[in-house]
Amino acid sequence: MAYGFILDDHTSFSAWRPLARQCFLADRAPEEIEWRCASAETTLFDTPLVAPTPKNGAEPPVLRSKCLALLRSILRHADQTRFALAYRILWRAQTEPALASIATDPDIARALNMHKQVRQDTHKMTAYVRFREHGVAQNGRRSFYAWFEPDHYVLPSVAPFFSKRFVDMDWVILTPKGSLAWNGETCAFSPTPCAKPKLSDDIDQLWQTYYVSTFNPARIKTKAMLSEMPRKYWKNLPETQLIPQMLADAPARVAAMAAQQPRPAPAFHHRLQQRHASAEEAPALVQKTQLGSGT
Fold first, then answer.
1. Cα of 121 vs its chain's centroid, Å
2. Residue 280's pLDDT is what?
3. What Pfam family is a match, any one (predicted)?
């Protein structure tokens, strides 16, 4: 008999928690429990899994807040072994209360790396989602769609950010790992995978024009740019389609800038200089007048 559970890929900490508690109350060690993902490939050697039965009078597990937060985070990771890792940490933390603070421990080191990847994925999604207007506005509210490809199951985590940031419009964010939809009152999450739609609007051209105008060919730092915006995000951003050509044209633009002769300042420059000079002279004239009058 094999003990364990088959879990959906989107299983959250709140859904995993009672199952882990059940295993712990049954006094089943981590090596006795098998955690399978529903999307994992099945083999001829897979055995049916049975949920363990809790023992009467067993004490529930206790976790410190730091360990609890770490488990919440890693269960948003896409690694299919995350459930087993989380239960192993929970089991060990009962005899090692400060386990989550030991960064050199193999389990904690792996969990911290997963936490870092989830946090980065969350940040990238809030930074690189691009909305395109779709359809005709209804009841005074415009409708927008966006496509993004997260590496991990972070949609529920970013929902509050988008709901607060774009509260005045209806929007839908589609991803291979589900979708978020906001109607002005509630944000609905669906775990159903989405196909990439064809999205475009008039703002794409405006955004590209703005991006080109702010590009400085004399201050190119390709490594820093790729570190902040990896190439995997480029295909879904309207402005990044222009980057290869802008990089290719940069040397010629820098040479043209260096060869350009100085040009006279525009007319308003002289007027501004005169205005500043008058403003600086005014206090001196007032002081001189006061001294002359004997006050």
1. 4
2. 75
3. DUF4130
The pTM of this model reads 0.77
**What is the pLDDT at residue 93?**
97
Distances 280 to 168, 206, 268, 275, 277 between C-alpha atoms, Å: 47, 42, 19, 9, 5
Containing 40, the helix (H) or strand (E) segment is none
Averages of pLDDT over each 10 residues, the chain, 295 residues? 92 96 97 92 80 94 97 97 98 97 97 97 94 77 92 96 94 96 94 89 78 82 80 80 83 82 81 84 60 55
3-class state of residue 78 by DSSP:
coil
Place of tokens 């995997």: 232
C-alpha dihedral (49, 53, 59, 62), degrees to nearest 10:
20
E strands within the chain?
A: 2-7, 33-37, 49-50, 132-133, 143-147, 170-175, 178-182, 187-190
What is the domain partition of the chain in residue ranges? 2-123, 129-190, 203-259, 264-295
Residue 84, both tokens:
């087993």
Long-range contacts of 40-45 (CB under 8 A, 24+ apart): 40/80
Task: Report CA 4 to chain centroid distance, whole Å.
Answer: 32
d(CA 169, CA 176): 23
Structure tokens at 52: 């363990």
